[in-house]
Amino acid sequence: MRISELSDRSGVALATIKYYLREGLLHQGEQVAATRAVYDDSHLRRLRLIRALLEIGRLPVAAIKQVIDAVEDESLPVHQMLGTAQYALGPAVEPEPSDDWQAARAEADRLIDERGWTIAPDAPTRNELAQTLLTLRRLGMPTDLSRYAETAGGLAAAELESLRLDGPRESAVEAVVLGTVLYGRAFDALRRLAHESESARRLAGEDQPPAAG
Amino acid sequence: MRISELSDRSGVALATIKYYLREGLLHQGEQVAATRAVYDDSHLRRLRLIRALLEIGRLPVAAIKQVIDAVEDESLPVHQMLGTAQYALGPAVEPEPSDDWQAARAEADRLIDERGWTIAPDAPTRNELAQTLLTLRRLGMPTDLSRYAETAGGLAAAELESLRLDGPRESAVEAVVLGTVLYGRAFDALRRLAHESESARRLAGEDQPPAAG
DNA sequence: GGTGCTGGATAGCGCTATTATCCACGGATG
DNA sequence: CATCCGTGGATAATAGCGCTATCCAGCACC
User: Fold this and answer.
1) Least Cα separation, residue A126 to chain B (angstroms)
2) A173 has pLDDT over 90
3) Buried b vs exposed e over A119-148: b needs ≥16 C-beta within 10 Å?
4) For residue B40, is it within any domain?
5) Which residues on adjacent β-strands are paired with residue B37?
6) Which among A125, A133, A198 has CB closest to B192?
7) Domain range for residue A23?
8) Lowest-pLDDT range, A66-70, A170-174, A201-205?
9) Across A67-81, average pLDDT
10) What is the C-alpha to C-alpha distance for residues B85 and A38, in angstroms, rounded to an integer?
11) Does B197 contact A133 at a Cβ distance shorter than 8 Å?
């Protein structure tokens, strides 16, 4: 198909597709003549990936580019590609040079080690977790995340259960990355709903005088 | 304290504080003279709330304003204030006018009803959940979220367990909103870590020939 | 043989969060 | 009493991001 058809079928504006091509998010079409190129299903698929990461995952375009680059670097072993892609899903957090921060980072590491998880020592997610722990502590909120870690472990295992990582690279990344982002958002929404319900239960009848009886 | 001290102690640039004052995120200081006002711990506290929502929660300033407005509207019953604040935490999602969307929304409602959760019929989070379900379906991914819902319910209950909602308004909102945002981010990071570990386990040794033995 | 779509390049836009600049004033300080 | 720094208040400028619009030359296709 030509670019205009790709635009129609994907629902993405033509100018935007050109932009994605420029930015390297979308691979070039097959150049069939000097002023003509054809696109195929892989482009449609890629556009779906991009839009999902953008709209549901709210990832900045630069982060999506990192994911794409990992996919397209054929020399990268699969697990490393997945790691790189995954790292792009979280915000970049740089360590503060303070003792507080060191302690938080240590706690994050401990949380990981206690579960026997296999995580790269330089995984940026460690810092992300540390930063969150630090903020919690500074605000005087409870920082025991063991239960969260257990729960997260359970969910992650179940998610990967149904996933085949041994297919083509692009499929594997799509599955992992989209799964992370989409189920992440779903869970977050559910958690907020549960919160609403729970606090409704606790505050029931608080604003009216209690019913007689 | 004066505004410059507030800036120093909070780490927020003076011009930014002025901006927050203009936007109504930060309440005015006590006007002690025509060109002099004093700020106190409540301002420091508020700044911490704002920064946490902004940096950890990645909420747009407009959404933070909604939270603040809910806090400051004394006529709002507590549970309604919490609801309003909570709704600002999720992205606004407007329904597509399609059958697919209707179905997704129905599924979201069912997921909620099945658990006997008490959720306002017009809670925007319902749409957020529906949208996510729709995207999952369109991408051909599994859409059974019962387990997620169960898990989320458990976590939410535990979180509210340790929270007192009967204190001053600002504390209640802070607790709920910061809890939602911070523990949400923590859980998300943990989930990604668990993912990394799990896929490392599954792909172990895939790129090297398996060790002898 | 026109003409409509294409690739390619560059410029502009709309929004958000912030930062900078300017101004007049008045309280603290000497 | 002079002065001068920090202040409140207003407005303008900035930076980054995700597009979107414009222009152009060329060729495939009718």
Assistant:
1) 8
2) no
3) beeebbbbbbbbbbbbbbeebebebebeeb
4) no
5) B31
6) A125
7) 1-56
8) A201-205
9) 90
10) 49
11) no
